[in-house]
Amino acid sequence: MSQSSKYLKIFAFIYLIFLYAPALLLPIFSFNSSQIIAFPLTGFSTHWFKTLFYQETLHEALKNSLIIAVASSCLGTILGVFAARATTRYDFSGKQITLTFILAPLVLPEIIVGVALLIVLMQMGLSLNLWSVVLGHTLLITPFSILIMNSAFNNLDISLEEASLDLGETQFGTFQRVILPLVFPGIIASLLIGFTLSLDEFIIAFFLTGTETTLPVYIWSMLRFPKQLPTTMALGTVLLVVSLVLLSLSEYFRRRTAKSNASVE
Amino acid sequence: MNKLVQVKNIYKTFAGLNAVDGVSLEIDQGQFFSLLGPSGCGKTTLLRLIAGFEKPSSGEVVIDNLHMEGVVPNQRPTNMVFQNYAIFPHLNVEQNVAYGLHKKRLSKVEKTKMINEVLDLVGLSGFNHRAASAMSGGQKQRVALARALILKPKVLLLDEPLSALDKKLREQMQLELRNLQRAVGITFILVTHDQEEALTMSDKVAVMFDGQVAQVATPRELYEKPISQKVASFIGAMNFIDGKVIDSKNVFTVESELWGTFTMTRSQMFGNPSKTVMTLGIRPERISIGTASKTDAASVSGIIKDAAYYGETTNYKIQYGTKGATLNVSEQNSFGQMGYQIGEEVQLKTDLESLIGFFD
Amino acid sequence: MTSDSKKGWRLLSVPLVFSILLLAAPLTMMVLLSFWTQDYLVLDKTFTIKNYIEAFTQPVYQLLFSRSLAISLTVTFFTVLLAYPMAYFISFHGGDRKALWLFLITIPFWTSYLLRMFLWKVILGYNGVLNSFLLWLELITEPLTFILYNLNAVIIALTHGWAPFAILPIFVSLEKIDRSLLEASRDLGDGPFHQFFRVILPLSIPGVVGAALIIFIPTVGDYITPKLVGGTEGLMIANMIQVQFSKANNAPLAAALSVSSLMIVAFISIVFVLVNRRYLRKF
Question: Are residues B163 and B206 in the same domain?
Fold first, then answer.
């Protein structure tokens, strides 16, 4: 078996390179002094990063993206906590179907979601602004939050809650002193993932923003200017690094929920 | 006798099945009471009904003359030790033990005193700052006990507390629990499927099958005078032999293949003795090998078919009669006893006074 | 209703209401709209199936539908084909580091989809990274032109873009295979080749089906990739939907196209699952 496993290993590494290669181009060409994104590399420069500081519209877009990301990740996490708690703790008919419905945005093409929301907002005569994007992003984030919180709540032994009640604590007190501390890492993981998803999301933002742009929409508009390409690459690199950090943190916290509850018995 | 806990005609239905099927019990103050039965007999459900984690479908629970209907677990004068201990993993020993004291207005000094007292009681002095996750099963169980006892409940409920421990530790804990109960004087209600455990620790045992109580008795009564074949075979081992009632004027005259005709008293009979067909039961240790002569009326001839050595005792399977029926006989491997070989012909003497007659 | 049910519904109702308002209602609205017509900015609410007739009979839309489907199916096929060995490697040869491998696979893909697709434009362009790299190494003398602004580019980019979403379900499925089954098959005489085709592959079909669906359904509706690297030949149905919405001011047609896409995708998915149901029975 070791012959084939050796080929597999080689395949795996080549595959990894294939997966990472495009992303690696971002930092490579952000630090490349030439304005043309092509080989051969011309020299090291941090010039493009510096230009980021002078783009007013970029700062606007960044601010908008941050507001949307914070709002939608919080909202999505709250909804996710509700749904996950309801489905892991209680058994009731219609639970599975309702949950599948709430999880639907995971498999629907984003454009359908964006178009549908746009239609509703237009019909209701509501203006498109940051809050329409928040709603759209919350819709996307909630399913992810549910998946994370589901596993956090599943790891929570019901006898811990019963013990707390048995020892004289109220339902709310039990939530505060036992449930919340034990699922807290899951909440953090959910917030971080939601934040990252929102920050990077393009289609729904594209359809639902009015005059205010988000970061991805800004990037999209910059793509038609070849002269701006290196700057856009630099921005992309920054985004990439931020996303990676947030996601690694999120994974770290998600692991913590699994570990901290595993030692009940 | 103060009846501390009364369960009155309780039913609990889950999805059309009665997990608890009409149970009435009375438990005295200061008693060590066990609910014993095979898995699925409803004993844990009954315990949870007393604790308040389940609501009865009908019937009621009364604790210390107060009706418990509508009373939630955190308001009941009961505390529970869970089967998997339910130790809060994010708190250390001290925090776990003091958990229920949170709402009570006690000074730090008083709390610490109470914590240390109860830790001492369960044998965990000095473990205050140990992390919950860093403890063995046995230690966690003591923390669970301490956590419940510190609140001085009127009733302590224990849900199969020893099932996850290995044999030696279990036996040790059985004695410790017994002594603990005597020391604090609190009523203990313990659920277990292990009859040895129930018999060792309890003042009284309720044997349950299929949601109903079959018999409530002291351990000795249960073992020596089980009221049905089911109870008899659940508690220890028993031999069952067919019998027939010939006459029932003052004493019962009984005939059976094994011992011919002999008499039995009313107190040895269970079920409805008006029938003539019955089953006789006798414990394996109430038959002894090799001490009777052929002329003794209660003497039985047999051949050793199988011998299983258990260290302290040996269990023999002995074939008697012509149809290949066997008796289980238990003999002490005491000083001077040689043990019997397979195929050996032996004489069995029976203690007829420990025979039980079943009419079920 | 038991009190447990009540508590459960009370909690679940909050996200449910949100979903109904933001998903069910808009989708219903979209279906409704598809039966109306729009003349510049005026909406005519008389019921008509004109939009659907147009969507299914006009050659331009037929072309876009069939092209979108063809692209998605191709992408799904190649992605799953490449993902399977990777998932196999991690499951059977990952040892202690399985979680690490999975994490490594997924990191690049949690980042901006837009950025990643844009990078393919940069890579596959006439003066792009790949061409300049190959020219620099003197492997080619002329830049390659067949790799950008057409179908090929879209397929390449999408195959790359959805890779981890294929790996994960296949991996989960492979992990679930009881290793003692493998030992049993060896014990009964199978070599590694037969063991794979007779035991491992059939038992991993649920994962493969899951992976195929996860990739197929969203890629049909992809907007970014065709727009960035598709040129005119590689445009897909989502691009047309957006055009109808904005420039052509024909929201009802856009809605009809959207609903039609959903229906087609749902139909194909259901057929696919049914075809494989023999392998999907829970064992």
Answer: yes
Name all contacts of B250-255 with Cβ < 8 Å and 24+ positions apart.
B252/B357, B254/B278, B254/B280, B254/B357
Q: Which of C 135-194 lie inside 8 A of A, CB atoms? A: 135-136, 160, 163-164, 192
Average pLDDT taken over every residue of chain C: 84
Same domain assignment for residues B216 and B99: yes
Interatomic CA distance for residues C283 and C280, integer angstroms: 8
**Chain B residues touching A264 at Cβ < 8 A:** 84-87, 89
CATH number at residue B106: 3.40.50.300
What are the chain A neighbours of C132 within 8 Å (beta carbons)?
38-40
How much is the average pLDDT of A116-138?
84
Task: Kindly report the number of other CB atoms within 10 A of residue C73's CB atom.
Answer: 16
Which residue from C9, C23, C11 is spatially nearest to A78, judged by alpha carbons? C11
* C104/A23 touch (CB, cutoff 8 Å), yes or no: no
Give the domain range for residue B336.
237-358
Tell me what the mean pLDDT of segment A174-180 comes to. 91
Bridge partners (DSSP) of residue B61 are B7
Q: Which candidate from C9, C110, C221 shows the least CB-CB separation from A109?
A: C221
**Are C120 and C195 contacting, i.e. CB atoms less than 8 angstroms apart?**
no
Q: Do A82 and C15 touch (CB under 8 A)?
A: yes
CB contact under 8 A, B102 and A169: yes
Considering its fold, how many domains does chain B have in total? 2
B278-296 residue pLDDT tens: 889 989 988 888 755 565 6
Contact criterion met (CB < 8 Å) for C221 and A111: yes
Most confident region among A232-236, C8-12, C75-79, C266-270 by mean pLDDT: C75-79
What crossing angle do the helices spanning A2-30 and C98-110 adopt, rounded to 10°?
Answer: 30
What ipTM goes with this model?
0.78
Reading the block at residue B190, the tokens are 């313990």
Collapse the DSSP code of B245 into the 3-class scheme (helix H, G, I; strand E, B; otherwise coil) and give the result. strand
What are the residue ranges of helices labelled H in chain C? 3-19, 25-33, 50-57, 59-93, 98-110, 113-124, 129-136, 151-161, 163-175, 179-187, 192-195, 201-220, 224-229, 237-245, 251-275, 277-280
Domain membership flag for residue B232: no
Which CATH number is C60-280 given? Answer: 1.10.3720.10
User: Distance (Å, rounded) from C-alpha B99 to C-alpha B87?
Assistant: 10
Token pair, residue B279, equals 């089953």
pLDDT by residue (tens digit) across C68-123? 999 999 999 999 999 999 999 998 888 888 888 888 888 777 777 888 888 888 88
Which residues of A, range 108-167, sit inside 8 Å of C by Cβ? 108-113, 115-120, 122-123, 135-136, 138-139, 142, 146
In order of start, what are the domains of chain A with their CATH numbers?
55-261 (1.10.3720.10)
* B299 secondary structure, DSSP code: E
